[in-house]
Amino acid sequence: MQDSTQNTTDNTVESNAHMDTNTERSASAEPEKLTKNEDIIAYLAKEYPNCFSLKGPAKPLKIGIFKDMVARLDDQAPVSRTGLRAALRRYTSSWRYLQSIKTDAIRVDLEGNEAGKIEKEHADYAAEQLKQSKQKFAERRKQKTQTDKKSGRAKVAGRVKTSNPANPSANKTKPQAKKRPPIEGNLSPGMQAYIRLGQSPVKCTIREVNGDDVVVETPTGMTVKTERKNLS
């Protein structure tokens, strides 16, 4: 009986110890990593304010600074190597950063200490990258403007006319043209009739009659082929 009680006690202690271990592991679990470049860059600017910045002129970074940052990462860091690499690529390809890469400009390490000067080759490369980036941006903006214009024209073409406060007379509803009865009887060249062109009937002269097909001439000299049912 005593052995059974002792075994039960030992199992309880072991179970509690196992739960305590799981709790410690949960407490020491890695924090959720930042994934957006903007958030990671903001973290770097806060962690290394003498090196990274969010506004104003950027400082040229030390060559190999990625390795320096990786060496400082631990399980509790809110960024991963992959996220850090992507954010660093975004930061160093921005116009603000590329504009800072000038010949003999001073590079800095994570603490803001001088870490060498920029060589002309690197400055020329940065200038070319900046030029290409601006050209691509201009092309995208031009394409967007053209797309917006086409979209705007389409909207205007399909838009129902609204009131015009600047021109009250334009707001008045145009009187509907009086509907004329269809022409009756036989048709022959030289007869006068009306044909609907646009919103209003236009007086015309019949020139040819071929069954239901009729050719008429308007006062402006325009010849129109139409059907008998369109005449009044």
Q: Order of helices and strands, N to C? A: HHHHHEEHHEEEE
Strand content: 5-15%
Are there runs of 5+ residues with pLDDT below 50, and where? Answer: 12-19
Radius of gyration: 41 Å
Q: Pairing-aware structural class of the strands and helices?
A: alpha+beta
CATH-derived topology of the largest domain: Fertility Inhibition Protein O, Chain: A, Domain 1
* Share of residues in helices: 40-55%
Distance between the termini: 118 Å
The CATH class of the largest domain turns out to be: Mainly Alpha
How many separate domains make up the residues? 2
Known CATH architecture of the largest domain: Orthogonal Bundle
Strand line-up across the major sheet: 3-4-5-6
The tally of helices reads 7
Q: At the fourth CATH level, what is the homologous superfamily of the largest domain?
A: ProQ/FinO domain
Structure description:
With 232 residues, the protein is an alpha+beta fold. It folds into two domains: 29-152, Fertility Inhibition Protein O, Chain: A, Domain 1; 192-230. It is built from seven helices and six strands; from the N terminus they run αααααββααββββ. It has helices at residues 2-27, 37-47, 65-71, 81-92, 95-98, 120-158, 168-171; strands at 106-108, 114-117, 192-197, 200-210, 213-217, 223-227. The strands form two sheets. It has a four-stranded antiparallel β-sheet, with no helix packed on it. Strands 1-2 form a two-stranded antiparallel sheet. Helix 2 packs across helix 4 (81-92). The longest helix has 39 residues, at 120-158. It is rod-shaped, with a radius of gyration of 41 Å. The termini are far apart.
